[in-house]
Design a protein that fits this description.
- With 257 residues, the protein is an alpha+beta fold.
- It folds into 2 domains: 27-110, TonB (TolA/TonB C-terminal domain), CATH 3.30.2420.10; 129-253, no CATH class.
- It has 6 helices and 11 strands.
- The chain has helices at 33-39, 42-46, 80-88, 168-175, 208-217, 244-253, and strands spanning 27-29, 51-59, 65-74, 92-93, 103-110, 129-133, 143-144, 154-159, 184-191, 197-202, 237-243.
- The strands form 3 sheets. Strands 7-8-6-11-9-10 form a 6-stranded antiparallel β-sheet.
- The model is unreliable at 1-24 (pLDDT under 50).
C-alpha cells in the first residue's frame, strides 16, 4: 500500500482535432489521489521512482475514454503506461462536448513527495522565461549579456507561469512534418498589453519547418501580467525553448492517418 506521504500528481491535457486550437474540453470525472495510489506501479513505488505516460484515446458519445493506447512512458520498464491505462476508465468528458471532441490526448504524471517530476519538455511552452535587456547594474538577477555595440550590457531572467498555454493536442497540427530530431531552438517574442506574444522570431538553428511550426504556435500562448518574482512582463522578451529530442518523437507517435 502506498503511504499518504506520496504526492500523486496528475497532468491532464485534452483537445480535439475538429475543435479550435483554443478549445479546452471539460472533465466530469477524473481519478482521485486514492486511485493513483492504487494503480501506482509497485516496483516504482518500492524504489520511490516518479514517472509519466501519455495516452491517446477516442471519446465515446457518453464521454468515456475508449481504445486508449500508450504513446510514451518514462522511465521505461516500470509499467507507468500500464498504470495510466488502468486509470483511463476513470476519466469522463462532459457528454455535451463529445460531438466536437472525438479524441483525447492525456498526459498522466505520477509523482511523490521529495522527488522531482519527470521532465515534460514534449509540451510546447515548458520552462519559458521572460528576459529584460539593458537592465541597470544592481538590478535583481542582473547578468552580463554583451552585444557588439554594448559590451557592458546586462540582462535579467524571470520565470513565469503561462496565463494560457496550448495543450499537447493543440500543438499537433503545427508540428506535423517537423524535421528536427535533436537540439534546442528558442522562440523569442515581445509581450503585448493583453499578454499575447508579438513580433516573434526564432533562433537561427531552427530549420524552415521548425521555424514555421514555432511561429504557428505563438498565438496560442498568453503571458501573465507579472512574472513569478512580481516583475512586470511588459517591456520584456519571452523566450520559449523547444527541446526537439522530446517534442518530435511524441508528435510523430501521435500522428494518426
Amino acid at each position: 500500500m502506498v503511504s499518504k506521504q506520496w504526492l500523486l500528481g496528475l497532468a491532464l491535457t485534452l483537445a480535439a482535432g475538429a475543435a479550435s486550437a483554443q478549445a479546452r474540453p471539460d472533465w466530469t470525472q477524473t481519478p482521485t489521489g486514492a486511485d493513483f495510489a492504487r494503480y501506482y506501479p509497485k516496483t516504482a513505488a518500492d524504489r520511490s521512482i516518479p514517472g509519466r505516460a501519455i495516452l491517446d484515446c477516442d471519446v465515446a458519445d457518453a464521454g468515456a475514454l475508449e481504445h486508449c493506447r500508450v504513446v510514451e512512458e518514462t522511465p521505461a520498464g516500470f509499467k507507468f503506461g500500464e498504470a495510466a491505462l488502468n486509470l483511463s476508465s476513470l476519466f469522463h468528458m462532459n457528454p455535451a462536448l463529445t460531438a466536437d471532441h472525438r479524441r483525447a490526448v492525456v498526459p498522466v504524471t505520477f509523482g511523490m513527495a521529495g522527488k522531482p517530476l519527470p521532465a515534460q519538455g514534449y509540451q510546447a511552452g515548458q520552462n519559458a522565461w521572460m528576459m529584460k535587456v539593458d537592465v541597470k547594474k544592481g538590478s535583481r538577477g542582473a547578468r552580463p549579456c554583451p552585444e557588439e555595440s554594448k559590451p557592458g550590457q546586462l540582462c535579467s531572467d524571470h520565470p513565469f507561469a503561462w496565463a494560457k498555454q496550448p495543450s499537447l493536442m493543440d500543438t499537433l497540427p503545427a508540428l506535423d512534418g517537423i524535421d528536427m530530431d535533436a537540439g534546442r531552438s528558442v522562440l523569442l517574442c515581445g509581450v503585448g498589453p493583453d499578454g499575447a506574444l508579438a513580433d516573434c522570431n526564432t533562433t537561427p538553428e531552427a530549420t524552415p519547418a521548425a521555424r514555421k511550426a514555432m511561429l504557428a504556435l505563438a498565438p496560442l500562448f498568453v503571458a501573465p501580467q507579472k512574472a513569478a518574482d512580481g516583475d512586470p512582463m511588459a517591456g520584456g522578451m519571452i523566450a520559449v525553448p523547444f527541446e526537439w529530442s522530446m517534442i518530435t518523437p511524441v508528435a510523430r507517435k501521435l500522428k494518426r492517418p
